[in-house]
Every structure is written in structure tokens, then in C-alpha cells.
Amino acid sequence: MSTPLDASDLAALAALDALLQTSSVTGAARRLGLSTPAVSHALARLRERFGDPLLVRAGRGMVLTPRAEQLRPRVRDALSLATLVFEDPGAFEPASMERSFTLSMTDYVLRVFGGPFEARVRAAAPGVDLRVIVNAVDDAERLRAGDTDLVVGIYGALPPELRTRAIISERLVCVVREAHPVLAPTKRRLTLRQFVTLEHVQIAPRGQPGGYVDDRLAELGHARRVARAVPFFQLALEMTASSDYLLTVSERIARQLGPELGLRVLEPPSELGLEPYALSMVWHPRFDADAGHRWLREQLVESTQALDGLSHARPRRRLDASDPTAGEASGRRRRKAKN
DNA sequence: GCGAACTACTATCCATTGTG
DNA sequence: CACAATGGATAGTAGTTCGC
User: Fold this and answer.
1) CATH 3.40.190.10 domain range(s) in chain A
2) What domain of life is recorded for the organism (predicted)?
3) According to the model, what pLDDT value does residue A156 have?
């Protein structure tokens, strides 16, 4: 396709995007405000043009061919940019925005920042729907494909084209149940020996072992036993409250849920030298100039700013790498960088 | 297992619109 | 005015679900 674009190409682009997003002729027609035969015609033309069926029947619905899957993010990007050309930058009004955003984050982020963020969005943009999914290994791919609008987590190994903005600093603390049999109630900081002797709960939303803490231990020639790995922060805290396990976790959620769960917050061993880390939001550059998306990003930043600095030192260094599991900023995952 | 009902896509024909 | 492209109306086909 080296010939210049014309008006029908743009219409075809819109039809292709709707087809690839909905995987349905009927759904695309609804989205485009056309009849199904009109979209079916458009699909036939696209099929001829690409020399590929693009959508094939699968039971009651349709599925994308590999070629269509490959086209999907590129078409999304192209259409978003084209849409921006026609957008009046001065006309954006959050109150009249009717739109759905899909956000990827951990239950920790939801628990700590979700309240203020939700209140802001509801008050200023009642027509906005928010869908939250759990951080996953394919967060970057989902951003590229347009399946996720914004990701919040601790990321290092991301494709270079993605935009990242640090929104808040966090640090790690250890928690155990109040009446822990081994640790005296007056104890404020764990020794390294206690840390490696006790059995651990680890938060691993993506199910992968290891992480920042294990890397630090390995550098010191030690290892710990992770007896339980679970995907959710709240669950990990509850498990810790009803066992003798030790949990290393972000300080904010430990302070927030610790008292009601009967948990004690302890400083990690100083030998470990666990650094504060930055929690970031990540988005695809196609949304850079999108007024609605920009507004949503601002709401998230402002929701976290009220919390930042209350009880936390700024990071001594800006962590540029770690792990979206957020519990323990990881260096290991940085290296495996899929893709 | 069979058939009706339902959903979703395709084929055909026709109207409209833009271009030369 | 002829032609091409696009889109709508209608009828038909194909696959799934559900009740008997």
C-alpha cells in the first residue's frame, strides 16, 4: 500500500478498526452507525485488499486471523491519530465525556489510591466508566493492542515507545501477626537471620517466583523460603494475620490494613538495603494528546499526590526498573524482558 | 437426536453520490 | 451522462442453543 491515502481509505480504516475491535460485523456496524450489510461490504473489500479473510467464523461469533491480529494495534494507532486531527482541543469537557477506560492495576493500588481517584472521576466525569483488570505479564502488549488504556505498577522492562510517569514513591516493610511467637512485641527491626529463618508469604500477581528481595538476598549469599505465593495484597495480608509467616510488602497498604487485621509492621533488615521505589503509570503514546485520557492521567496523579509525602521519604534514587507485582520491586523480571 | 428459534454473516439488487 | 464506489433493503445461509 504505497499509494497515497484517500477519503475511502480513511473510511475503510474506521471500518477495519471497528471490525478488529469487535470481532463482529454486527458489532462493528453498531459502532459505526451503519447497517450490517454495509459493513459486510466493507469487510469484503478489506479482504480483497489484504488478501486475507481477516475475520473467520468461529461458532456463533467470529475470530481474527493472525494477519488481523497483527494489524489490530497498528490500525488502532492510525485511527487514534486520525481522530486527533478532527478533535477540537479547546472543547474538552470531562462532565460531558461518555467513555470507558480499562485500567490495569493491583488490588494494592485500588485499595490505597482507588478511593480518592474514584471520587474525583465520579464527581467530574459521571459519564465515564472504569474497568479494572489485574496486572498481567502481557500488560505492554495489551497497551499496544488498545485493550488496556492505562497501567499502574512498577515497570522497568517496557517497550521503549510506551510512556511512563512516576506517580508516587513507596518503600517496603515487613509485617507479621501481633502475637507472633518468635518476634518479641517490642521489636522494631528484623535481623537478617530472622528474615531468612522465617517462612514467607510473597505477593506475585503474575505467578512468577523471585523478585527484588530474593535478588538482594542472593547478593548477600542468602536465600529465603517462600512458603506461600498469592496474587493479591489483601489476601497475603490476611494469610499473614492468621499464620506465623512473614510478609514483605508496600508500606502504605501495611499501615492501612495492618491495624484492622492485627498485624505488626517491622523494618526489614538493614543489611538488605531495600530501596524505595517509584510506582508509575504507563500508557501508549497514541493517548498523548487525547484530551480525555490526559484528563484521566491527571486525576490519577492528583489522587496520589495527596498521599505522597505524608509519611514517606522520597526515593533516594529513582528506580527505573522493577516488577509490576509491586510487592517487591524486581530486578529479575527486568532481565527476562519478553519481546 | 431432532427441529424450531435465534443470531450473525453473505448475496443480490437498487439508490445515492462523486468524478471525469 | 456514464461509471465506480458506497451503503441500504431483503432474502438466504450457516451455526448454536434449547426444548421435547
Assistant:
1) 97-169+277-338, 172-272
2) Bacteria
3) 66
Residue A13 burial class via C-beta count within 10 angstroms: exposed 0-12, middle 13-18, buried 19 and up = middle
CATH 3.30.2110.10 fits A172-272, yes or no: no
C-alpha to C-alpha distances, A149 to A95, A144, A263, A271, A304, nearest whole angstrom: 19, 9, 35, 39, 18
Q: For residue A31, say whether its CB is under 7 Å from any atom of strand C.
A: no
Closest nucleotide (C1' vs CA) to A59 is: C15
pLDDT digits (tens, 9 = 90+) for A191-213: 999 999 999 999 987 667 788 89
For residue range A107-130, what is the model confidence (pLDDT) as tens digits? 898 888 888 899 999 999 998 989
Architecture of domain A97-169+277-338: 3-Layer(aba) Sandwich (3.40)
Residue A56, nucleotide of least CA–C1' distance: B9
pTM score? 0.65
Cell numbers for A330, please give them.
Answer: 524486581
CB of A19 lies under 7 Å from some atom of strand B: no
The answer to whether the CB of A254 falls within 8 A of the CB of A114 is: no
In this complex, which residue's CA is closest to the C1' atom of nucleotide C7?
A: A38
- Distance, angstroms, CA A28 to C1' C11? 22
A332 touches strand C (CB under 7 A): no
